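Late entry, written up from scratch paper. The run itself happened at the end of the previous shift, but nothing got recorded in the book at the time, so transcribing now.
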Amino acid sequence: MTINENKYNVLYYVVSEQHINNSKILFKNTKFNIFYIFENNLKIINKEILKKNKIKHLAYNGEKNLNTILKNIKFNFFFVSTTQLRPLPILLIIEAHKRRIPIYASQEVHQMFLHQNEINNYLMPVDTFFVSSIFEKDQYKKLGYTANKLKVSGWPYQHKGSNKKSIKGFLLIFTGSELINPLSKYSLKKITYIIDIILNSKKINKVDIKFHPNEDKKILTKTKKIFGKKVRILENIELNKIINDYEFIISDSHTQALLQIINLKKKLIIFDYNNKNLKKYIDNEIFFKTTKKLNDILGNEIDYKTVFTKINKKILNIKPEQSKKNIINYIRKENLKSFKSYKQILDINLWYLLIIGEYIKLFKDSDLDKEFDNFKVKINNFKYYENFLNKTDTRVTKNIVIYFRIKYLIKYSKKIKIRDINIINSADFNYFKFYIISDIFKLIFKLLFTINTKKSKKLCYKFLQLYSGISLNYKYKILIFLIKVLLKFKK
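Output as recorded:
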């Protein structure tokens, strides 16, 4: 069956203008009517620019506003650029389910590969999640994602770059810092350390720098102040428009841009920040940690075809143009069907409860709705708790179940037994550690002052490790210092 794309309305969720640019690449040469929706309060997207360019957009200002949007326009499917832990993504997942229309997502970056199997995105379930490689699919399956919901499409968002000839010069590219990405390993201190190594090399006395499009202005301002005229920070210009202007491109170990550079067959040098995935698939002769090693790379003739052989075969084997076709053809072929399993319905309920703080009944009078109703109170019953742990076993949402048990124990000042400590110790809260940080610190103090066992002490250290090496506000820095002192004197 051939669908009439002119009559198909698409609600496309975006957070940044980069997401809009990516959508234009993906849906180029299609006739779908695309309406962009974004959170107005984030103040990332400039509505005036969208109006000027006559781009259809809908600003989200709250749940009532979303109901009005969906009432006025009949959408045939939703597409989301991210499902990070904010109200709008989970509300769109719920609304897609209510309307029996599909909701799709496509990886904007090779996240598992670049961030060593850690994610802070695409946690919540969509009908079909297009992933960039078999590597990505295998890693998401380990988190309990349903295999038939994961489609290996390849990565479609490649820019061709300009047609300019390369000039003699160096471009340095950074992924988002810890100020905008909780998983980032890049603080201002690390960024300046890398720039120092580069500027102390024999062949580089000036470098152009391209930070993440949404980088915190503090990083840009302080970098300029530290290095002055030795650096030129490129702002308000897309990477694809300048990438071919440079003979050499230097990259950190975690940015999607380095994979774009490989696709464009450019000369690439990578700062070695212990990304084991990357070093497994790229010859180590282009990685540097010191000025001496960088000098050696710049002094050698490197066969980049050989250097990139393995990564091209295993990670970048589906080329961007084919990837676009894979995604669009799948959407057309499926005729916009939607189906959610029992596991997905349960997971949606749990994510909704975590983010919105309320219960949602997706099927009236269903057994799951009856069982899940008043979940936050019923979880005081250990058998009920165990039942939901079994229902979510091997999935990320198991950690949400454990978290609500923790909330119950704290709220009602219940004694924490060894059986609870054992289960909490098995949890992995890394995926939403900032979302639950207040309750985690309350739990640490409860463990410190009510239980005196090796297991409770070990659990406290585990939680401290969860928040180590990342940017925290002054309040939590003081709390961590205090906890370390208390642990030191606790027998």
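The longest helix spans residues 474-489.
(Scratch paper discarded after transcription.)
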